[in-house]
Amino acid sequence: MSHGHRRSQPRIWHHDYLALSGLRQAIDRLVLDRNLLRDNQTIVDFGCGDRPYEAVFTGTGCKYVACDIDGPVDVKIIPGEPLAIPDNSVDGVVSFQVLEHVWDIDLYLRECHRILKPGGWLLLSTHGTWLYHPHPTDFRRWTRPGLEDEIKARGLTNETTIPVAGPLAWTLMVRLIAYREVLRKIPVLGSLLVGPLAVIMNLRAKLEDAVTPHAIRSDNACVYVTLSRKAA
Questions:
Q1: CA–CA gap between residue 20 and residue 93 (Å, rounded)
Q2: pLDDT in tens, 20-56
Q3: pTM score
Q4: Prior bond of 136 cis (ω within 30°)
Q5: Would you say 128 and 143 are in contact if contact means Cβ atoms under 8 Å apart?
Protein backbone atom coordinates (compact mmCIF):
# COMPACT_ATOMS: atom_id res chain seq x y z
CA MET A 1 0.00 0.00 0.00
CA SER A 2 1.39 3.42 -0.95
CA HIS A 3 1.93 6.04 1.75
CA GLY A 4 -0.69 8.28 0.17
CA HIS A 5 -3.26 5.49 0.05
CA ARG A 6 -2.49 4.57 3.66
CA ARG A 7 -3.09 8.19 4.70
CA SER A 8 -6.39 8.46 2.87
CA GLN A 9 -7.62 5.00 3.95
CA PRO A 10 -5.92 4.16 7.27
CA ARG A 11 -6.38 0.70 8.73
CA ILE A 12 -6.63 -0.20 12.39
CA TRP A 13 -3.41 -2.23 12.23
CA HIS A 14 -1.42 0.92 11.31
CA HIS A 15 0.48 2.61 14.15
CA ASP A 16 -0.97 6.05 13.30
CA TYR A 17 -4.49 4.83 12.59
CA LEU A 18 -6.24 7.09 15.10
CA ALA A 19 -4.51 10.26 13.90
CA LEU A 20 -4.97 9.51 10.20
CA SER A 21 -8.58 8.34 10.47
CA GLY A 22 -9.44 11.37 12.61
CA LEU A 23 -7.76 13.66 10.10
CA ARG A 24 -9.70 12.18 7.21
CA GLN A 25 -12.98 12.44 9.14
CA ALA A 26 -12.27 16.09 9.97
CA ILE A 27 -11.51 16.90 6.32
CA ASP A 28 -14.71 15.23 5.12
CA ARG A 29 -16.73 16.91 7.86
CA LEU A 30 -15.52 20.42 7.04
CA VAL A 31 -15.87 19.94 3.28
CA LEU A 32 -19.46 18.70 3.68
CA ASP A 33 -20.71 20.80 6.61
CA ARG A 34 -19.34 24.06 5.22
CA ASN A 35 -20.32 23.25 1.62
CA LEU A 36 -16.83 24.23 0.49
CA LEU A 37 -16.66 22.54 -2.90
CA ARG A 38 -18.49 23.41 -6.11
CA ASP A 39 -17.97 22.62 -9.79
CA ASN A 40 -15.16 24.45 -11.57
CA GLN A 41 -13.52 25.77 -8.41
CA THR A 42 -9.71 25.85 -8.36
CA ILE A 43 -8.14 24.19 -5.32
CA VAL A 44 -4.38 24.40 -4.67
CA ASP A 45 -2.72 21.65 -2.64
CA PHE A 46 0.27 23.53 -1.19
CA GLY A 47 2.77 20.74 -0.42
CA CYS A 48 0.80 17.89 -1.94
CA GLY A 49 3.29 15.03 -1.41
CA ASP A 50 1.75 11.92 -2.92
CA ARG A 51 -1.69 13.56 -3.04
CA PRO A 52 -3.57 11.42 -0.49
CA TYR A 53 -6.73 13.57 -0.56
CA GLU A 54 -6.82 14.55 -4.24
CA ALA A 55 -9.99 12.54 -4.87
CA VAL A 56 -11.87 14.52 -2.22
CA PHE A 57 -11.59 17.57 -4.48
CA THR A 58 -11.54 16.18 -8.00
CA GLY A 59 -14.57 14.04 -7.18
CA THR A 60 -16.71 17.16 -6.94
CA GLY A 61 -15.61 18.68 -10.24
CA CYS A 62 -12.94 20.98 -8.85
CA LYS A 63 -9.70 21.76 -10.64
CA TYR A 64 -6.95 20.36 -8.41
CA VAL A 65 -3.52 22.04 -8.61
CA ALA A 66 -0.69 20.00 -7.08
CA CYS A 67 2.26 22.00 -5.71
CA ASP A 68 5.46 20.62 -4.17
CA ILE A 69 9.25 20.89 -4.24
CA ASP A 70 9.68 17.75 -6.34
CA GLY A 71 7.81 14.98 -8.14
CA PRO A 72 5.21 15.22 -10.92
CA VAL A 73 3.42 18.44 -9.94
CA ASP A 74 1.46 21.20 -11.64
CA VAL A 75 3.37 24.00 -9.90
CA LYS A 76 6.86 23.55 -8.50
CA ILE A 77 7.61 25.07 -5.10
CA ILE A 78 10.92 26.93 -5.13
CA PRO A 79 12.02 27.62 -1.53
CA GLY A 80 12.06 31.32 -0.72
CA GLU A 81 10.12 32.31 -3.83
CA PRO A 82 6.41 33.03 -4.48
CA LEU A 83 4.30 30.34 -6.16
CA ALA A 84 3.83 30.72 -9.90
CA ILE A 85 0.13 31.37 -9.33
CA PRO A 86 -1.53 34.80 -9.82
CA ASP A 87 -2.89 36.93 -6.97
CA ASN A 88 -6.55 36.43 -5.99
CA SER A 89 -6.99 33.54 -8.42
CA VAL A 90 -7.98 30.37 -6.49
CA ASP A 91 -11.05 29.41 -4.49
CA GLY A 92 -9.35 27.25 -1.88
CA VAL A 93 -5.95 26.20 -0.58
CA VAL A 94 -5.39 22.90 1.22
CA SER A 95 -2.35 22.09 3.34
CA PHE A 96 -2.22 18.75 5.12
CA GLN A 97 0.60 17.98 7.59
CA VAL A 98 2.96 20.42 5.83
CA LEU A 99 3.32 23.44 8.11
CA GLU A 100 5.53 21.72 10.70
CA HIS A 101 8.04 20.99 7.90
CA VAL A 102 8.20 24.62 6.68
CA TRP A 103 10.93 26.94 7.95
CA ASP A 104 9.55 30.23 6.59
CA ILE A 105 5.94 29.96 7.72
CA ASP A 106 5.46 33.69 7.16
CA LEU A 107 6.11 33.30 3.43
CA TYR A 108 4.06 30.09 3.28
CA LEU A 109 0.94 31.51 4.95
CA ARG A 110 1.20 34.83 3.14
CA GLU A 111 1.33 32.94 -0.15
CA CYS A 112 -1.88 31.16 0.85
CA HIS A 113 -3.47 34.56 1.47
CA ARG A 114 -2.07 36.10 -1.73
CA ILE A 115 -3.37 33.49 -4.16
CA LEU A 116 -6.82 33.17 -2.57
CA LYS A 117 -9.72 35.09 -4.03
CA PRO A 118 -11.55 37.41 -1.63
CA GLY A 119 -13.75 35.10 0.44
CA GLY A 120 -11.56 32.10 -0.42
CA TRP A 121 -10.70 29.51 2.22
CA LEU A 122 -7.68 27.70 3.65
CA LEU A 123 -8.12 24.15 4.97
CA LEU A 124 -4.96 23.33 6.93
CA SER A 125 -3.82 20.60 9.29
CA THR A 126 -0.64 20.26 11.31
CA HIS A 127 0.63 18.66 14.50
CA GLY A 128 -0.07 19.73 18.03
CA THR A 129 1.98 16.87 19.51
CA TRP A 130 3.92 14.15 17.68
CA LEU A 131 7.31 12.55 17.36
CA TYR A 132 10.10 14.15 15.34
CA HIS A 133 9.60 13.16 11.68
CA PRO A 134 11.85 15.02 9.22
CA HIS A 135 10.65 14.94 5.61
CA PRO A 136 13.26 16.27 4.95
CA THR A 137 12.89 18.74 7.84
CA ASP A 138 10.66 19.05 10.91
CA PHE A 139 10.65 22.34 12.83
CA ARG A 140 7.55 22.99 14.94
CA ARG A 141 4.54 21.90 16.98
CA TRP A 142 1.55 24.09 17.91
CA THR A 143 -1.00 24.72 20.58
CA ARG A 144 -4.48 25.42 19.24
CA PRO A 145 -4.39 29.16 20.11
CA GLY A 146 -0.85 29.44 18.73
CA LEU A 147 -1.82 27.92 15.39
CA GLU A 148 -4.95 30.04 15.09
CA ASP A 149 -2.95 33.19 15.86
CA GLU A 150 -0.24 32.29 13.33
CA ILE A 151 -2.91 32.07 10.62
CA LYS A 152 -4.71 35.21 11.79
CA ALA A 153 -1.47 37.19 11.72
CA ARG A 154 -1.25 36.56 7.95
CA GLY A 155 -4.63 38.11 7.22
CA LEU A 156 -6.95 35.09 7.44
CA THR A 157 -9.87 34.67 9.83
CA ASN A 158 -10.22 31.33 11.64
CA GLU A 159 -13.71 29.84 11.34
CA THR A 160 -13.18 26.58 13.19
CA THR A 161 -10.53 24.20 14.51
CA ILE A 162 -11.07 20.47 14.97
CA PRO A 163 -8.75 18.63 17.39
CA VAL A 164 -7.78 15.07 16.47
CA ALA A 165 -6.68 12.57 19.17
CA GLY A 166 -6.27 13.89 22.70
CA PRO A 167 -3.44 13.12 25.14
CA LEU A 168 -4.69 9.73 26.33
CA ALA A 169 -4.82 8.56 22.72
CA TRP A 170 -1.59 10.06 21.38
CA THR A 171 0.49 8.81 24.32
CA LEU A 172 -0.70 5.31 23.43
CA MET A 173 0.18 5.87 19.78
CA VAL A 174 3.68 6.98 20.73
CA ARG A 175 4.13 3.86 22.86
CA LEU A 176 2.84 1.74 19.99
CA ILE A 177 5.54 3.17 17.72
CA ALA A 178 8.19 2.29 20.31
CA TYR A 179 6.83 -1.25 20.74
CA ARG A 180 6.72 -1.69 16.97
CA GLU A 181 10.40 -0.80 16.65
CA VAL A 182 11.32 -3.25 19.41
CA LEU A 183 9.27 -6.07 17.87
CA ARG A 184 10.75 -5.55 14.41
CA LYS A 185 14.15 -6.45 15.82
CA ILE A 186 12.88 -9.91 16.77
CA PRO A 187 13.20 -12.29 13.78
CA VAL A 188 9.96 -13.68 12.32
CA LEU A 189 7.83 -13.62 15.49
CA GLY A 190 8.26 -9.89 16.02
CA SER A 191 6.83 -8.98 12.62
CA LEU A 192 3.87 -11.28 13.22
CA LEU A 193 3.03 -9.56 16.50
CA VAL A 194 3.12 -5.95 15.23
CA GLY A 195 -0.31 -6.02 13.57
CA PRO A 196 -2.27 -7.63 16.45
CA LEU A 197 -0.61 -5.34 18.98
CA ALA A 198 -1.51 -2.30 16.87
CA VAL A 199 -5.16 -3.40 16.70
CA ILE A 200 -5.35 -3.84 20.49
CA MET A 201 -3.65 -0.54 21.28
CA ASN A 202 -5.64 1.39 18.65
CA LEU A 203 -8.91 0.09 20.07
CA ARG A 204 -7.82 1.15 23.53
CA ALA A 205 -6.69 4.55 22.23
CA LYS A 206 -10.04 5.06 20.50
CA LEU A 207 -11.91 4.25 23.71
CA GLU A 208 -9.72 6.50 25.83
CA ASP A 209 -10.08 9.34 23.35
CA ALA A 210 -13.85 8.99 23.48
CA VAL A 211 -13.87 9.53 27.26
CA THR A 212 -11.33 12.37 27.23
CA PRO A 213 -13.13 15.66 28.04
CA HIS A 214 -13.33 17.98 25.04
CA ALA A 215 -11.76 20.82 27.05
CA ILE A 216 -8.62 18.71 27.43
CA ARG A 217 -8.57 17.31 23.90
CA SER A 218 -9.17 20.69 22.24
CA ASP A 219 -5.94 22.19 23.58
CA ASN A 220 -3.77 19.05 23.72
CA ALA A 221 -4.43 17.31 20.41
CA CYS A 222 -2.12 15.27 18.22
CA VAL A 223 -3.40 17.06 15.10
CA TYR A 224 -5.35 20.26 14.50
CA VAL A 225 -7.49 20.79 11.40
CA THR A 226 -8.35 24.43 10.78
CA LEU A 227 -10.64 26.22 8.37
CA SER A 228 -9.83 29.89 7.74
CA ARG A 229 -11.04 32.45 5.24
CA LYS A 230 -9.76 35.51 3.43
CA ALA A 231 -11.89 38.62 3.85
CA ALA A 232 -14.46 39.06 1.11
A1: 20
A2: 999 999 999 999 888 899 888 999 999 999 999 999 9
A3: 0.94
A4: yes
A5: yes
